[in-house]
Amino acid sequence: GVSTSGVLHEHKVVFSHDSKLFFVAAGRFVRIHAINSVTPLGALSGHSEKVTGIWLNPSNRFQLLTCALDGMVKLWDYTEQSCLYTWKAETRCGRKDTDPCMLPIQKMVLAEALSPDMRTISPDQGLTEKKKEEEGRKNKNKTKNALSALPDFVLYLSVRWCKKVFHPHPKDTEESENSAAKGSKSKGNTKSKAGGTVTLEVNRDPLVFGSESRIVSFQISIGDPRPRMRTILKTVGPHYMCIDASKATLVVAYGRTLIACDLHSHTKTIAVPKTPDNPEGTLEVINYSIPPKFKQRSMSTRVTALAMHPLYPHFIATGNKEGKVTFWYNFLEDKKLITSSLHWHAHAVHAIAFSGDGSYMLTGGEEAVVVIWQIETKYRHYIPRLGSVINNISFSPKEDTYALTMRNNSVLFLNALNHKPSLNLRGLSLAHTLPGEREDGGVGGPMEMVKVDPYDNLVICRGVPGRLQFFDPLWEGPGNMMGRHVFEVSIAMRQQVSRTEKLKRKDRVLTAADRIDQWEMDPSGTWLATVENSISDTPVGGMESKLKFWYRTTGSMG
Fold this sequence. Notes:
Elements: E1 2-3, E2 14-15, E3 21-26, E4 29-34, E5 42-45, E6 51-56, E7 63-68, E8 72-77, E9 82-88, E10 90-91, E11 101-102, E12 105-113, H1 116-119, H2 129-148, E13 153-160, E14 162-167, H3 170-181, E15 197-202, E16 212-221, E17 224-236, E18 239-243, E19 249-254, E20 257-262, E21 267-271, E22 282-286, E23 293-298, E24 303-308, E25 316-320, E26 324-328, E27 339-343, E28 349-354, E29 360-365, E30 370-374, E31 380-383, E32 390-395, E33 401-406, E34 410-415, E35 421-426, E36 450-453, E37 458-462, E38 467-476, E39 481-490, E40 514-521, E41 527-535, E42 543-553, E43 556-557
Parallel strand pairs: 1-39
Antiparallel strand pairs: 2-3, 3-4, 4-5, 6-7, 7-8, 8-9, 10-11, 12-13, 13-16, 14-15, 16-17, 18-19, 19-20, 20-23, 21-22, 24-25, 25-26, 26-27, 28-29, 29-30, 30-31, 32-33, 33-34, 34-35, 36-37, 37-38, 38-39, 40-41, 41-42, 42-43
């Protein structure tokens, strides 16, 4: 079977329009959950690589778009859990003699979705009976062609670009080797293109700085499998991308560079049926065949988070590795740039999210604390001790729930009124240390210890430092999903505390406060014995070992 409970924390949670469902990317699948249940209602399966983006279709509340590293964009009906259409992001790099190269899609934003009403509008709608026949003849063909030329969806994708690789003909290689053996003055392998082939290859590692990525406009139409793709920007390494609520400004950040694109900078006018509201019979639409205008600025610190204000298209918020949140008020305007900053976090800001009216902003990072900022007064409120590093934050449409994706491979839902957890969706926790810590035992390495609970065949493994996770790998859910979190035992009572100093050397080792080195269960699965090591708080110092015994109660160990 395939376990889809794995990677839950890399991307934002997406809520349905009515806030009753939520969608979370889990490997090659998209899990569908009710807002109050950790048991999935179903799953969208069809991608062959990891899903990297989810967007609701604003024109149809029962559809959503997904993208993945397999280079596919899919349109789904999530009520039927069926794929409606598939489009491929592929290129030949301008060469007709090469096979198409699939471009892994790293991120996706939806810029525009054409309303179905525009497709089905009648050419003679709004006209009197006398003029219907006359105007209909003139406008029918013109309108049909103009509207059919508009794409159903306009997406902006971040793709890993391919490079051309020349493969010489075997004869050329043999001749060059023979020439070299004879001491010939030839230049070796001639690599003549007449006797070789050219292929396209893609760097599959998304974390390599210097590997080329591109931001492309991706225009797709239902029923047409051939998308129209145009390069907008070139980037390198990991980056961030977002779009404002009015779909007018696209912002991209990578390294110390921030770029804002004005998507409405180029427009064109097309002919549509005349109506009482539109007596001239014209419609102004965005001309996506021309790259948008953009502005670029450099910063002194690397960007680690990015968000857009929901009401003001030129209001950009960035978080950096020093813990500061910077507001850019007039990034695209031809005026002196106005900025301001907020600073509470001690380490990098990983997540920024605005409320629907733009009055509040939520930030999170390594400290495992959500900071709620009142934008106008800069007053802040804290939701502390959340248990792990916060990667992403999202609001439900009703704004009564916050969804946090956590580094311990969980999704935590908080009630917006009392700030208490309402749901915790857990995956298989990765055995890892806190940021800045490396344990001597090789936690998280290939030799990580895993044991089986003889009581009910659960897998026991280390997850968050100081805790043991009991995981059921044989559980089968809808959509061929397998594996679920059952319960967790806190062996060493410790709180999530962020590091207090920066690591200046890669080989420096900081020992965790409490570390579980050994655990074993008796043959009946009733008793659990654990051994944990911690730094002694006595004047002598050194390591202190503790042996603990745990007795199984209903559904847990205590």
